[in-house]
Amino acid sequence: MLFAPAVGAPQAGLHTPATLFWTYQTIQGLSDRLGVPINSPFAEGQEPALASVVVTDYTGVVLIC
């Protein structure tokens, strides 16, 4: 599984959507090469929720960018 933050409206003290898009672009080549989609169900600032889902719902290799 590949995860990158969801790009949405900027929140105070967090990165801009353009900056968040770079995290997606960072793993885009790997996604294309492996044929594995990039999941973006959580926005920046929701890391605890992401971690909870990853440890309870997934096995194997998980990359969070």
Detailed description of the structure:
- The protein is mostly helical and 65 residues long.
- The chain has one domain (2-7, 15-64).
- It contains 2 helices and 3 strands.
- Strands 2-1-3 form a 3-stranded parallel beta sheet.
Layout of helices and strands:
Layout lengths: L1 E2 L13 H18 L3 E2 L7 H11 L5 E2 L1
What is the H/E order?
EHEHE
Residues in β-strands, percent: 5-15%
How many separate domains? 1
Helical residue percent band: 40-55%
Alpha-carbon distance between the two ends: 11 Å
Summing up helix and strand content along with how strands pair, one would put the structural category as: mainly alpha
Report mean pLDDT, rounded to a whole number.
83
* Biggest sheet record: 3 strands, parallel
- What is the subunit arrangement here? single chain
Q: Tally of extended strands?
A: 3
Count helical runs.
Answer: 2
> What is the overall shape?
flat
Taking all Cα atoms into account, the compactness measure Rg is 12 Å
Strand line-up in the sheet with most strands: 2-1-3
- Catalogue the unreliable spans: none
Top keywords for this entry?
65 residues; mainly alpha; three-stranded parallel sheet
In short:
With 65 residues, the chain is mainly alpha-helical.
